[in-house]
Amino acid sequence: MADTSKVTDMFIQTLAQIVGKKNVITKREDMLSYCGDESPTSTPHYPDVVVKPANTEEVSRVLVLANAEKIPVTPRGAGTGISGGAVPIHGGIVLSLEHMNHIKEIDGDNFVVVAEPGVRLMDLCQAVEAQGLYYPLYPGEKGAFIGGNVATNAGGMRAVRYGVTRNFVLGLEVVLATGQVVRTGGKYVKCSTGYDLTQLLVGSEGTLAVITEVILKLSTPPGLRELLWVPFTSLRQAIKTVPEILKLGVPVIGLEFLEKDIIDMIEGYIERKIPFSEYPAFLLVILEGNSSDEVYDSANKIAGVCTGNGAVDVYIPTGEHSKRELLEAREKMFPAIRRYDPIEVVDVVVPRSRIADFVSRVKEIAIRYKIPITAPGHAGDGNVHLHLMGRGVAAQEWKDNVPKMMDEIYSAGVAMGGTISGEHGLGYEKKKYLPIAMDDQRIDLMRNLKKVFDPNLILNLGKIFDVE
Ligand SMILES: Cc1cc2nc3c(=O)[nH]c(=O)nc-3n(C[C@H](O)[C@H](O)[C@H](O)COP(=O)(O)OP(=O)(O)OC[C@H]3O[C@@H](n4cnc5c(N)ncnc54)[C@H](O)[C@@H]3O)c2cc1C
Question: pTM of the predicted model, to two decimals?
């Protein structure tokens, strides 16, 4: 088991010899931005030391040292996670990948990009687009690092058409806790050669290895993109329209649902009006197509289905500026909601056909416990983002009721055939709910895998599940 008491001056000096003195932080006042993440409920924890390696060899040497002394290591990307995954709950070393931020290669013939883990998602997207290629995923926080996206298997708004990060990861270079460098996969799209270690590492939240290089699949850029903003008189009506839209077979890349309570919060945050904001529920449909005729035809079909299901109107913003404004309003949802602290975030995923039932159940729980819950979500892929809103709720009531509500919410999601996290991961904030989704046998199997990858249990211990 890892032990922080061995972080001595001598140990820190040895770290400095590996990564250079300027890449080692030991002063508490300089460490604050490495203590937490964007989870509204995670409490900051100070590490003993932050190190910023510049390459795989330095990562390996740091891990050899930490492993020999059994000192905990928390890999860290941009710290935009929402489950406390990058929080150094056991102290020790925060291994920040921020200096490993180079795009090594954009290979247009094979449609791949090879990148270090500290490349920001937005920089990767811009770089490949400049070469006429496209990385289609869109997890809402573009400042996240690509290594963090892989470690959490990030999803986002475009999952309806493109899937999630794991669908784009062709290969990895990782460093195990022992310092051993391992390569998985490669620049090829098919593989039936042994176990798929790449996919085991995707979504492992830094508990199995440190990702030092990522090979991602690319595609060609979409021709045109169109948005439809559709107000409804009830959420149930809006959600029940979703399967019908998907059955049209038109190239929908994103399909989101929102309610008026959230729209009010977003309007307050961005200080401008959102069209039709007086209505109770909305669908945001994002379409792609190769020609204006194709997109126009798809938009018309969707508008027909929506009005057939009771939509009040179908607003199609014209011009890039108004499209951008609408998308930006959606992107500001999380910061807008966070202002209503305290909040608790849930990202249950259920089969798409059960979204309406799940949201109804959640609303019933909210009424029973008298704690409001906002329920926006990626309607197209069944991922419902709930926010339990604590403003105005007595502290004791919040403390007593929220754990019970969370249990009920997760149990309802699992009973409907879903699971407890669609894209945020479990980190340490949500790990206590894992037994709701998995039996002991499966959790033990994961614990045993962890011990194979990390025998001394130094890598991100206490995340996803506890292990002795
Ligand atoms: C406003 C906002 C919107 C968001 N929208 C979405 C969304 O739509 N979809 C979505 O999926 N997420 C979303 N997120 C969550 C977050 O952006 C993602 O989880 C992202 O993938 C985290 O990347 P990061 O670099 O910030 O990782 P961090 O938060 O630094 O780390 C996350 C986890 O990955 C591990 N890790 C990081 N880098 C490595 C590495 N190189 N090797 C091994 N382990 C590593 C950490 O130990 C930790 O467990 C959003 C967050 C915010 C703040």
Answer: 0.96
